[in-house]
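Dear Dr. H.,

I hope your travels went smoothly. While you were away I took the liberty of generating a structure for the chain from your last submission, since the lab meeting agenda had it listed for discussion. I wanted you to have the full record in hand beforehand rather than looking at slides cold. The sequence, exactly as received, is reproduced here:
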Amino acid sequence: MLQRFGALPFPIEVEIGNLTLSIGEIFELSEGTILATDHPSGVPFTLSAGGAELASVEVVVVQNSLSVRVQSMSQKSKTGAGTNGIN
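The corresponding predicted structure, in token form, is as follows:
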């Protein structure tokens, strides 16, 4: 049954960090502006799908394209179940 859905596209996200700008700062953005995020240098990024964490990844460059390398997969849990198997 699941094989029927294996080829369906599903959005995957890599978040590089968060930041907050005032409306005035947003209006002042221009080419070359550098925005510092809250993500520490050297710390893996999180790969997510549908809001669920899939893996820890590092950014690499492959043929002049930013890419990610999976460092470790996140632990799998029972969908919809708490630690005792019920919600």
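Two observations you may find useful: The beta strands are 12-15, 45-49, 52-62, 65-73. The chain has a mean pLDDT of 84.

With kind regards,
E. W.
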